[in-house]
Amino acid sequence: xxxxxxxxxxxxxxxxxxxxxxxxxxxxxxxxxxxxxxxxxxxxxxxxxxxxxxxxxxxxxxxxxxxxxxxxxxxxxxxxxxxxxxxxxxxxxxxxxxxxxxxxxxxxxxxxxxxxxxxxxxxxxxxxxxxxxxxxxxxxxxxxxxxxxxxxxxxxxxxxxxxxxxxxxxxxxxxxxxxxxxxxxxxxxxxxxxxxxxxxxxxxxxxxxxxxxxxxxxxxxxxxxxxxxxxxxxxxxxxxxxxxxxxxxxxxxx
Length: 254
What we know:
The chain is mainly alpha-helical and 254 residues long. The protein has helices spanning 9-16, 20-28, 47-61, 66-74, 79-113, 119-126, 132-142, 146-155, 160-182, 190-206, 212-219, 221-224, 226-233, 239-253; strands at 7-8, 36-37, 43-45.
């Protein structure tokens, strides 16, 4: 062992990722005592000291108490025996952590499945068209129906990005209705009925199975409920009646 191979306390601390205070403590309790001293009296670690210290560090990271580590090292086992024991402990810990990761993933999946877009996000997405009373009234009217339950089951897991996609699709359907109205196309035309069918398919895709007749029943509210009427009239004058008529016509051709 040459002088160049000796390491100071600070060097050992840096190499093994422990604190100088920890090394001093191990020295004080006789667990790992530096074998050499410099001319100035500073502690110096030999290669054998470093090897012993490495075993201590691994055992500590595996959760062994210092007293037990001292007993293991004093038992006279060779390096290979210590490494085998440490490998077995690490393997067992990995299996335990794999199980923990699986449990966390399952809990995270359950948590994400309960995700609901916040009211602030709804207002941000839908602006003045968002009204909490709509949802409350809808639950009072249809809360016991299969369609309502299916809608609640699906939407509770939707992310903000999915709601943005829903909004974009709705705007595209509405834009098509406006285009047809401006072109003077009748509400019972093939083009208007196709637009109504696109609106129905969006409901089926994102919320619940919506047969054509159910869609027609819902469309009656577009002209019967002033709030729904206003939603369409704010987009284009006469649109509520036009969409209602197109949906009813689409149901009749089904």
